[in-house]
Structures are given as structure tokens and as C-alpha cells.
Design brief:
The protein is mainly alpha-helical. Helix content is 66%, strand content 4%. Helix 1 runs antiparallel to helix 2, helix 7 runs parallel beside helix 9 and helix 15 runs antiparallel to helix 16.
Length: 461
């Protein structure tokens, strides 16, 4: 499920005005707030609007990125920060996505398409990296995000009540809200209801972390958290709802933050046990879950089977033809392909096994640096540790969502922004390593930390 770009310009007057305002803000805001126009574009502007110049597509998002790149280059904001392992993994992933993905069926059209995806990914990551100042500035951005989601939630309530999408005045989204199984699937400015719901679910952990950043942040955290829940529920998508619920479970593991290795091993043992006792492969748990929450869990499980069965077709350079995987699953506007609603499978289909491996390596590296930084910050203060933990929970909810949707448009922006924030804020070489005593005996460190635990952390636990 991905965006389909048409070959004609579709920028409306309201969209052009919004674009002009975002470009002006991009150049005029202080460095730590320069990413706000990019996030505002995600929240409020349907990205189906675009300019087509010489056959090249320039959606509003891409034009805002261009403005950001111009600012960064003119002001030299790209200078002065070191590259780390996560940066290198992301760059390799982006470059190989372009090269190997094009080799799957070499053509000018595919090359232009891959170049556009490459520009979006690298541009967003690059800008967010240049503008991510420090931890305090990140807290400020979370507060801004809390303010941004409030109007979305209000307008989605209106959409749920009237079945009309207010954001349709900008173009790019339908005026009449679509329904499935008797439930309206609200989408606000997002290209699809699943994207809207996923945005709410993956944003929610940040507001939980914000709650503990001082008394002045609690009201914003509450408003942002409630709004994120409303957005997720109003979208009526089971994948996003499951991600939201599992995000809550992620915070329940805060007490076990020093024993996460044991937790991971326990989860692996549980999966192996389920594989032994289940008649179907373990990924068919999504099909059973959809019987409770609704949705297309069977299709998601079947996709894994299909990808394994056709491994020889995509493992090297990916493939541009998947219609033979299942005749009943072919996309209406793309007769060559089925509806792939799994980010992991999409990574392999668009770039082979190497691209998929790099994508997984990025996620693993993110969890590593967040885990190390959480331990270090939690030893200093609960507020710092819990916000880094919230960053990890948000990453986890993204991974859950990857099983139900392929990111494009707005959610791709949120994903790249999160990776860049982790790279700049969490990957601090001076604090990556835990104190020697804690490395030798993490259990004793946990007991020591709990003995001096603030009252608010005791309440969370």
C-alpha cells in the first residue's frame, strides 16, 4: 500500500499558501525549531498535492525539504557534528536502496522513482540531524508535537461525527470519510487511515515521557497523550490500536530496564515454544488477533508465507513484479503487484536481502544506543531516563506497525526524524558506555538505583 503520484500538478491555492508559510518559517526560525515546519507539514497538509516540472514530481513535502537543505547549506549548519555508526548504516541503506533497487528492473522511470525516495529519506534525516541540538531542545520539540496533535484530534472527532474530512479543502484527501465494517476510518490530513492511526500510536510514548519532565509539562503531556489516543481510535485500524496497546506494555518493562537481555531471551523462548505447539507458523498469530480486534491479520500472515515461497525472486536485487504471489491480492491500480502491507517484506522486495539486512541493522543499533543511554541517564535522574525509554518505546511501536503497513508520505517523515533524533541525542559517545561497576554487576546497579528512586518513579513502577 503506497502512494500513487499522478503526472499533473495538483497544488491548490490553500496548499500554495501553506507551502509559502512553511518555507518562510524554515528560513526564519532558530535552529532548534527549524524542524517544526517539517513536522507541521506532516500534521496538517495532505501530501497528495504536488508540482510536476519536466516530468519530475515535487510534492509539498519535497519542496519543504529543498527549502531546509538551502538553509542548512547557506548557514553552514551541517558542520561541526561527528558521524556515528547509525549515520553510516542509514547512509548505506539509502545508497544501496537506490542502486540495488534500480537494478531489479533497470529503467529511467524506476531510477527517477528511486531517486525521489532517496532524496526524501536522506533529506529528512540530514535536516533533522543538523537541527537536533540537545536533550533540552528535544523536550521542547515534544511539547510542540503535543500542541500539534490537539487540532488533529479535534478535527478527527468532527470527521467521526459528520463523516466529512475538513482537510479535504486542501485537496489530496477525500471529502467523505471511508467506512469499513460499519466503522468510519478517519484520516485527517494523512493519505490513509492506517497512517493516521500509526502516527497517533507512535507519538503517544513521547507524551508519557513528557509527563515526568517537570510540573509545567504535565498539562501538555496529558493533552498530547489523550489526543494521540483519539487519533489512533478514530482511524479505526487494528494495527495502530495494537501498536498503541503494546506501547503501554513497553512502559511496564521500565522496572526491567537492566535485565532486558533476559527479557529478549525470554521472548525468543516463547516464540520457539509457540512454533512448536501451533499448527500454523507463529506469524499466523496476527490472523488470530484480528479475529478479536478486526482487520486483515490473515493477509499479513499470508504475506510472510508468500515472501518465503518466492524468496528466489527478490533476495538478490528485489523485484518489481509480485502479481504471481497471489492473484486475489493484486492492487487495483498496479496489475504487476500485490498489496504488500509489511515494511520488512517491502524492504526485501525493493532492494533484496542486503537492503532488508541493513534496515534491521538500523533498528538494532537504535535499540542498542537507547538502551545504553537510558541506563546512564536513569542513574542521574528519573526524568531523563524515562524520556529516553519513551524514545525506545516509540521505536518499538514503529516496529510493531511495520507488520501492518508500509510507510510512505507523512509516516516516512516521522520515522526518519526519529532515527535522526536517536542518532544526535542518544548516540553521545561520552555517555554511551555505562560505568565500569555497572557493567560488571548490572543487578547491583539496579538495586542501588532503586534504593534512591524518586517517588514519582516508584509510582510508575
Amino acid at each position: 500500500m503506497e502512494q500513487v503520484l499522478h503526472d499533473t500538478s495538483s497544488l491548490t491555492p490553500p496548499g500554495a499558501l501553506f507551502l509559502a508559510v512553511m518555507v518562510v518559517l524554515t528560513f526564519s526560525l532558530p535552529r532548534q525549531w527549524a524542524v517544526v515546519p517539517l513536522l507541521a507539514t506532516v500534521c496538517y497538509m495532505p501530501l497528495g498535492q504536488q508540482l510536476v516540472i519536466g516530468g519530475l514530481h515535487f510534492p509539498i513535502l519535497r519542496l519543504v525539504i529543498l527549502a531546509g537543505v538551502a538553509r542548512v547549506v547557506c548557514r553552514g549548519e551541517h558542520l561541526g557534528f561527528p558521524r556515528n555508526r547509525l549515520d553510516k548504516l542509514f547512509l548505506w541503506w539509502a545508497v544501496l536502496s537506490l542502486i540495488i533497487g534500480t537494478l531489479s528492473k533497470p529503467s529511467g522511470v524506476l531510477l527517477v522513482n528511486r531517486l525521489g525516495v532517496f532524496f526524501n529519506a536522506v533529506g529528512i534525516y540530514y535536516l533533522a540531524s543538523c537541527w537536533a541540538k540537545d536533550f533540552k531542545a528535544f523536550i521542547g520539540l515534544v511539547k510542540v508535537l503535543a500542541l500539534m496533535v490537539i487540532p488533529i484530534a479535534v478535527l478527527m472527532i468532527v470527521e467521526k461525527s459528520t463523516s466529512r474530512n475538513v482537510f479535504s479543502v486542501f485537496g489530496g484527501v477525500p471529502e467523505i470519510t471511508i467506512a469499513r465494517e460499519g466503522h468510519l476510518r478517519c484520516q485527517a490530513a494523512f493519505r490513509h487511515p492506517i497512517l493516521a492511526g500509526t502516527f497517533g500510536a507512535t507519538s503517544f510514548p513521547f507524551f508519557v515521557g513528557l509527563w515526568f519532565q517537570g510540573r509545567g509539562a504535565k498539562r501538555l503531556a496529558l493533552l498530547g497523550g489523550v489526543s494521540a489516543c483519539i487519533i489512533t481510535i478514530a482511524a479505526s485500524t487494528s494495527g495502530a490500536l495494537v501498536a498503541l496497546l503494546l506501547g503501554g506494555v513497553g512502559f511496564a518493562f521500565w522496572r526491567l530496564r537492566y535485565q532486558m537481555r533476559l527479557v529478549r531471551r525470554g521472548i525468543l523462548v516463547l516464540i520457539l515454544a509457540l512454533a512448536c505447539i501451533m499448527n500454523a507458523p507463529v506469524w499466523y498469530l496476527t490472523a488470530k488477533l484480528s479475529g478479536i480486534t478486526g482487520g486483515t491479520g490473515w493477509h499479513r500472515a499470508w504475506l510472510v508465507d508468500a515472501a518465503i515461497a518466492h524468496f528466489d525472486e527478490w533476495w538478490l536485487c528485489g523485484t518489481t513484479y509480485t502479481a504471481n504471489w497471489g492473484a486475489n491480492q493484486i492492487v487495483d491500480d498496479d496489475p504487476d503487484n500485490i498489496d504488500i502491507t509489511n515494511q520488512f517484506i517491502s524492504e526485501g522486495v525493493k532492494g533484496g536481502l542486503v537492503k532488508l539486512a541493513l534496515f534491521i541493522a538500523i533498528i538494532v543499533q537504535c535499540f542498542k544506543v537507547i538502551g545504553r543511554r537510558t541506563k546512564v541517564e536513569a542513574a542521574k535522574s528519573f526524568a531523563g531516563g524515562i524520556l529516553y525509554w519513551a524514545m525506545g518505546v516509540s521505536l518499538f511501536t514503529h516496529c510493531v506497525s511495520f507488520w501492518s503497513i508500509v510507510y510512505f508520505d507523512q509516516m516516512a517523515v516521522i520515522w526518519y526524524w526519529l532515527l535522526a533524533v536517536i542518532s544526535r541525542i542518544a548516540c553521545d559517545e561520552s555517555t554511551d558506555a555505562a560505568p565500569a561497576a555497572s557493567r560488571e554487576n548490572p543487578e547491583s546497579w539496579a538495586r542501588e538505583d532503586e534504593s534512591t528512586m524518586p517517588a514519582q518513579e516508584m509510582a510508575v513502577g
